[in-house]
User: Fold these one by one.
Assistant:
Number 1:
Amino acid sequence: MKRPSRQGRPTVAIVGLGLVGGSLARALTRAGYRVVGVDRPPVLRRARAARAIAAGRSLAAAVSEAQVVVLAAPPLANLRLLRALARPRRPVCVITDVGSVKGVIVAEARRLGLENFVGGHPMAGTERSGFAASSTALFRGRSWILTPSGSTPPAVRVVRALVRAVGARPLVMPPADHDRAAAFLSHAPQIVSWALLAGALGDPVARRYLRMAGPGFHDMTRLAASPRALWREILAQNHGEIALALARLVEGLGHAGPKGWSLVSSRRRGARR
Amino acid sequence: MKRPSRQGRPTVAIVGLGLVGGSLARALTRAGYRVVGVDRPPVLRRARAARAIAAGRSLAAAVSEAQVVVLAAPPLANLRLLRALARPRRPVCVITDVGSVKGVIVAEARRLGLENFVGGHPMAGTERSGFAASSTALFRGRSWILTPSGSTPPAVRVVRALVRAVGARPLVMPPADHDRAAAFLSHAPQIVSWALLAGALGDPVARRYLRMAGPGFHDMTRLAASPRALWREILAQNHGEIALALARLVEGLGHAGPKGWSLVSSRRRGARR
């Protein structure tokens, strides 16, 4: 039988103890929650040693023990986990996720009839990844988007409380709004960061003088160190919105320059004076 | 008669006490140089009060007093100043500048026969501007490009010593290499920063949720606060190289996404699964 942990706080199972899952485990444990983790044995050992989790569990054991399950694996794995949680019988626990795209997983939860699912996305992160990069403070002061869609009000309340417990600000919006905004504010900037670095590396002169770059370039290419495999899944799930954001960006590149600027022009205004 | 200041260090005249000129004045004064400033009276008063300069001067007085003149005004003003310094007779002082484009001003110095001119560009800065944003530490650990072209070896030595005195690393390269590298490492990123912010502000959904943006977006749009008027001059002087860097960036946007990615496609892969 499921019982809330200390001071009536639910036991939370976190599936995937990477940068986000690991940070959430640390922050919730510090906030007094009982946290159990699901991941590969070496990761669980490290998380136990760091006192980020009370115990490591199999998925089945974690789900039967916890009142809340947080899916913190990469997007495609989260979808598989969601399907696994929906059978053979509906779980009584609340389920949320921390994925960067909300439309796909929210639609899947509705298709599966999971009214205890509340989509979530903390707007926090770094270019680093894995449990080693996790930190208690990752979410402090950050927005944490929630995209309830057919979710029960008690499930939303439980997830809201988790978000507040780690110092983040819950922000409720429709999944489609999230995916549009994330395309402009997170996904397109990620691609731009890669493309800026690739452009500089691809030019023999710029590449030779890469060490001359100032803080602006470093800030704008910091995200380029983000894990590619994870991002491939994110980009594939939000393809249409990102294509829109990038098309707008390319238009904007034309407007941001001097009057009459054209990306294909090779006329050198500076030399004409 | 010109005499070196304390400990044999030259007196330096800085024309334009904005972010870069003001920071240079502070750093050189701290390093024991005598620095005189040329700017509008209120700026000179502030710089004197901050002990960034020993005295404010007219351009003519500064040039007759100093062994080194640093042009730290916007690019077009630097060109006008260079022409003013070349008449009625060649100045005996060393001249350098801190502009973001080197080809145009170096060519002008050669045309004017100014062998004491050494083009320079500190790879440091912030999105802020004006003397109020200046700081002693701005150049510490940064690269400072020098583009001697027909410059006398003693002039290059003097400018190198200034650069080292403020904690920067002199890096010598041809003006054309500088302008190519700067297009990829500084000028194109500046335009991208504006375009990313403009894209987000131009989309009604992204605009509404701008406050949800994480640290990545903030880093990538920090430069968007840079002064537009100054940048218009920079972009105009390096138009061809920047157009090349942006064209490469746009190509890169296509490659950075998932396989088969296209900027014009509106097919939503995520929704197809």
Number 2:
Amino acid sequence: MIVDVSKKILIVGLGLLGGSYAKVLKRFGFHISAITLEQSSIDYALREGLIDEGSVSIDERLVKEADLVIFALYPHVFVEWIEKNQHLFKSGALITDVTGVKGSIVYKIQEMLREDVEFIAAHPMAGREVSGVENSTDKMFVGANYIVTPTEKNTPEAVSTCMELGRLLGFSNVTTLSPEEHDEMIGFLSQLTHCIAITLMTCNDKENMERFTGDSFRDLTRIARINDLMWSELFVANKPALVEQMDLFINKFNDLKRMLEQEDIEGMRQMMRHSTQRRALFDKK
Amino acid sequence: MIVDVSKKILIVGLGLLGGSYAKVLKRFGFHISAITLEQSSIDYALREGLIDEGSVSIDERLVKEADLVIFALYPHVFVEWIEKNQHLFKSGALITDVTGVKGSIVYKIQEMLREDVEFIAAHPMAGREVSGVENSTDKMFVGANYIVTPTEKNTPEAVSTCMELGRLLGFSNVTTLSPEEHDEMIGFLSQLTHCIAITLMTCNDKENMERFTGDSFRDLTRIARINDLMWSELFVANKPALVEQMDLFINKFNDLKRMLEQEDIEGMRQMMRHSTQRRALFDKK
């Protein structure tokens, strides 16, 4: 379906991600429309040629005409939007998203959705430390992962269309995981790392520490500058998987503390060698 | 004393740090000698003009002639060296070091040292992910901190000479802390961050995680590639301060986990805002 550029794409939520999707897809010649909260976002996107038309209200025509609808909203806003407005979708429309958690969203939406519309979930693992459509870029997806999370409700066609979308957008790795595998992975690689960074940043408020800070501490706390509204919602939306990852971390950290207290040098060295070996796997290829 | 380039400097332990000291100080015209374990290190340093002479044994003449002796050894090797060889120091010699922990080293050495020789401790907070004299560089100290940790046993002259050494080496910030303040600071900013990185790297061995890794996880685990011999010794040498910092971290991390379990969104957002504000202090100036 995607390769047919006569199809119309609607992006709901024109922020950094939605805007970057529009920027890339417009280049292929698709007709792109957008629905978002702020008129200034629409104005910017029209001026820069990211979209063909846009609205700050739920413009029925835009929804009805769309063959593919991409949701780039906060999880609970996404769910509410579908509840209220799904009667507007064109029959046969394909729905996808960019939500960073899956298990708590995908089944809920597939359960409530009309039979003649299909939702195939995806997580583009890309971001920047800035937000808003004005920071959109068509370079954000190079080197990044695009993960499609199909369920039993999805058709093979929808899965391949969604994967094709990821490749069109320029993602370097396009792959599939189950919603549960996705949530465990994201709980560990992304959410746990953010939990650690904000904890490190707030656990010792002694003054003047910044005078002595080196690169290690800066690296570990770069992501401690965090969008509190979005991340608190994402944490709660992935609670079981994230709590499990936090427990794995706490247990290992307590092991290390116990070895230190007992001056178990050999135990610590073994952990450090394990760490060194395993880190090599994670080097940029 | 330092500004007088007719004085002779001996560096004991010619690795990355010792070699980098030599490289910078040689440029000022000092006579530099070195004692280290490997002949290949001496050969390299002579060939590259980092030192004037060197030995792999405790060459009595080199020690007896030195006005300033800089120790760049592992903590326990440093202490043993002083025990065995301090009778060789020239009367009036000044001793300094590069050891990354202070409380467990400084008092011990000052206690055992001859009355006519002074030990003023310093910690150059600089390093690279590579080691050995072959990786020496005269650029490593720009932007970095050099911390002198005087005690009641030190003379004001020794403190200012040591601070002048730090400035000659090119450190951007030269300052003093008590050994205890130093150990708390280093326990938090450096050792705790390494504990976190190696824990994160080893707490979940699930396969294929590296396929989905992004910059956040890579940033938090860069220092998980670690010299196990050196860091296990440094951890134990700073045990009380490091355990205290680990406890601060664990308590805060458990607070966050409790808020997540109770879905206390407002509590989590408050912690994230605190983290965001505090991180701004630590930006590179």
